Amino acid sequence: MILTKKHPEQDTVLFDGECRFCQRQIEILRRLDVRRRFIYKSLHEPSVAADFPELSMEQLQEQMFVIDTQGNARGGATAVRYLSRKLPLLWPLALLLHIPGSLPLWNWLYAYVAKRRLWIAGRCDNTSCQIHQK
């Protein structure tokens, strides 16, 4: 977990708004967020870099982040676990995601899907869906 100086008024989900796969997942989250608990921002919005300089562009392109109102930034599978606890319609998923000792599996699965999101979603309008290999 990364601590940010900015403490948003609402929990904030940062995602790649130029990636079709990511856009589809956020559309689903918005529908499940019936109480409007979260703000959803594309990593490409200028305010994201200004508000959360602790998160590099590379980190933001590799995984979705959720920043809570205390400034705690959770990425990848940890962010998905957090969302599953906060959105009542995801509580059944939370039971599975929080099986003791299962986080390494969810981290691997998240990274596996994230690296293949271009292939999963089909072509992108630009290179935003490509994860830069180290």
Describe this structure in words.
- This protein has a single domain (2-121), classed as Glutaredoxin (3-Layer(aba) Sandwich).
- It has 134 residues and is an alpha+beta fold.
- It has seven helices and five strands, in the order E-E-H-E-H-H-E-E-H-H-H-H.
- 46% of the residues lie in helices and 14% in strands.
- Strand 2, helix 1 and strand 3 (38-42) form a beta-alpha-beta unit.
- It has helices at residues 20-32, 46-51, 57-62, 76-86, 91-97, 103-115, 117-121, and strands at residues 2-3, 11-15, 38-42, 65-67, 72-75.
- A five-stranded mixed beta sheet has the order 1-5-4-2-3.
- Helix 4 (76-86) packs across helix 5 (91-97).
- The chain starts with a strand and ends in a 13-residue tail after the last helix.
Structure characteristics:
alpha+beta, 134 residues, globular, Glutaredoxin, 46% helix, five-stranded mixed β-sheet
Strand content: 5-15%
Instruction: Please count the helical segments.
Output: 7
Structural class by sheet pairing and helices: alpha+beta
Helical proportion?
40-55%
Count of individual beta strands: 5
The averaged pLDDT comes out at 90
- Main pleated sheet: 5 strands, mixed
Low-confidence stretches: none
Radius of gyration: 14 Å
Give the CA-based shape.
globular
